[in-house]
Amino acid sequence: MTQKLTIMILGGYGVFGGRLAQLLADTSIHIYIAGRNLSKAQAFCAAQTGSATYSPIGVDRNEIAATLNDLHPDILIDATGPFQDYGNDPYRVLSACIAAGVNYLDFADGSDFVFGTSQFDAAAKDAGIFMLSGVSSFPVLTAAVIREMENTMVVQQVTGGIAPSPYAGIGLNVMRAVVGYAGGDVKLTRGGVETSAIGLGESKYFTVAPPGELPLRNLRFSLVDVPDLQVIPRAHPDITDIWMGAGPVPEILHRILNLLAKARAKFKLPAFTRFSPLFYWVLNRMKFGEHRGGMFVRGVGTRNGQPHEMSWHLLAEGDDGPFIPSMAIEVILRKVLRGERPENGARPATNALSLADYDMAFNNRTIITGWRESITSDAPIYRQILGAAFDTLPKPVQDLHNDTRPRRWSGNATGEHGKSRLARAIARLIGFATTDGEIPVNVTFTPSKNSELWERDFDGQKFRSTQSIGTGRDAHLLTERFGAVRVSLALVIRDDRLYLQPRRWTVLGIPMPKFLLPSGDSFESTLDGKFHFNVRIAAPLVGLIAAYRGTLTPDK
């Protein structure tokens, strides 16, 4: 049964509050859009459409008590911040909600602030209200993933990160928070001991790659001050180490923040908060690259007494990714509409939602998730890269790649080649066959650990390449070496086809410009019950170099 609900979003015309209001547009909720700038609240409300209704309110968070007593919404959502810098009375809004008997949710990302909300637990219960803090991807989604991992393994070490799309935009208050703790102490757990590290002073690289999907590029993540670092180890006693990072792009700006953080820590400088508007201005104008974002959570521990690793990956395409931080509160509000109300009391929102709750929120959006687990290095290389997605391939494609023994497959192919002298010269350099029309072909596969030699014979014209499992910046990619050229390929499954999409390339180990990266519509599938290949290789300024398609069956 759907209930009537009135909410107030403090900072409702801001980045996170505004996105939450948009996510709720199809509901029956009445939404007060509140903030210090009444004209901005009015403009935001006027622009909204849908079945939800909106009213603008001009109010400062420090004077919210009177407004709560006058309007008495069912729930107040604090989407302001930065929660790391709320002065001498950081819980003023919580106290006002308790006094007014108004339920409370917030987007807080400051670990100390979120952890400290439990001190109001008894008062919230006495007032008959719920108060959840940190209702966002960190720590709600992270914790849901960890609980899912713990169904099949003992998790001892956790690493996670969020990589926003460069087109997502970032609020000034978020920028103030990040710059404020850059170079300061961030509390976390290492080796089972509560300690601290330098905010934005530590970095790791990771590739977000749900199996069978086009991964994000290998990104730099740097340590951030988020609630997970304090609340998750206390809720999961087996966890001895936790590290959480953010991977903003462009990387040059990211590295500048890293350098400033290290300089502040080394020379005991004050926080760089006053430079927040500059970073905010620059970051929101340097929008280039892929309009994609992602998140990962990696758990290391044991399964049945043996070392084991699992990782959860999320990809968000286009404009859907920026809504994810607001989805936790959206899901809670939709549950409240159905009569599923959180228990009374004040606490971090760590256990507020399950991964299944998030999966429902991701439906009908271009948000993809997937799991990776430890796979023995004796497995075929395509199975290691694709993980569980390997079993979704057509059977002939599985049969060709699901073997670690030397073997040969034969068939016929139709070739086509570039007509220019440069295209033919490149084809000869790499070793591609240069005969057009239909020709017999056979391919010999010679596996070794984590790699496989492919020797192709097109009617007497032979060329070879070595395919290997990518490492480092090529993690979760297939690398193929043709002499001095090495191409890193993503294995992407679409419509019963396995596409091989180029992502990076080097010549003699030297990274080459992306705009010169060879491309083409290359895929493997099934045709008349046989393994079918379609390879097309082209390059900017050159055009078609070589293309061939055909079928193969295993030699007896």
TrEMBL record:
Source organism superkingdom: Bacteria
Pfam families: DUF4166 (PF13761), Sacchrp_dh_NADP (PF03435)
Signal peptide, first to last residue: none
Domain Saccharopine dehydrogenase NADP binding: 7-108
Domain DUF4166: 393-552
Classification via InterPro entries: DUF4166, NAD(P)-bd_dom_sf, Sacchrp_dh_NADP-bd
PANTHER family to which the protein is assigned, alphabetical: CARBOXYNORSPERMIDINE SYNTHASE (PTHR43796)
This protein's name: Saccharopine dehydrogenase
Source organism (scientific name): Paramylibacter kogurei
Lineage: Bacteria, Pseudomonadati, Pseudomonadota, Alphaproteobacteria, Rhodobacterales
